[in-house]
Structure formats: structure tokens, C-alpha cells
Design goal:
- Residues 1-14 have a biased composition (Polar residues).
- The strands form two sheets. This protein has a five-stranded antiparallel β-sheet, covered by helices on one side.
- The protein has one helix and seven strands, in the order ββββββαβ.
- The chain has one helix spanning 64-72; strands at 10-16, 20-22, 30-32, 35-41, 45-51, 57-63, 76-78.
- The chain has one domain (10-78).
- The chain is globular and about 30 Å long.
- 11% of the residues lie in helices and 46% in strands.
- The longest helix is centred in the last third of the chain and has 9 residues, at 64-72.
- With 81 residues, it is mainly beta.
Length: 81
């Protein structure tokens, strides 16, 4: 059986600047705190990971279209290397 090539996820760093939310399941939107995040991009979504000031870790996956809109709006600012 021939295996299909799956694109690998990429890790990037960014900063949240503005109102960025994710919606867990059927729940209400939850805000992602402003500040640094690590991004792991996949073909259909982007996972954001962060640590709050009190050292609480958080992560959320958002659909690719929503992620692209946040970047376009300047609410997620990618770190340039």
C-alpha cells in the first residue's frame, strides 16, 4: 500500500495583540491572553500555546481561516527571525 505524504507541522513564535479567542467544543469563546505564544501550524488548523503570568500553561487549536484573519488583523503578530 502506498503511503500518502503528510505535510509536517511547523513551529513558530508570535505575540497576541488584541482580542483573540478560541471556542472549545460547543462552549462559549474563551480569550487567549495577550503576550508571547508558540504556534504549531498544520494544514487545517493552528495550535497556540502560552504561559500566563502565574505560570499556568494553556493551549488551543483554531481553524486555519480564523488564524489567518487574526494575522491579517494584526491580532497575532509573527516573530521574524
Amino acid at each position: 500500500m502506498k503511503q500518502q505524504h503528510q505535510p509536517q507541522a511547523r513551529t513558530q513564535h508570535a505575540t497576541i495583540r488584541g482580542h483573540v479567542t478560541f471556542t472549545p467544543g460547543d462552549g462559549a469563546p474563551i480569550a487567549i491572553p495577550e503576550g508571547p505564544v508558540e504556534l504549531i501550524t498544520a494544514p487545517d488548523s493552528t495550535t497556540l500555546s502560552w504561559t500566563t503570568e502565574d505560570e499556568t500553561a494553556g493551549s488551543a487549536a483554531i481553524p486555519k481561516d480564523q488564524y489567518n484573519q487574526y494575522v491579517k488583523d494584526g491580532k497575532i503578530r509573527l516573530t521574524k527571525h
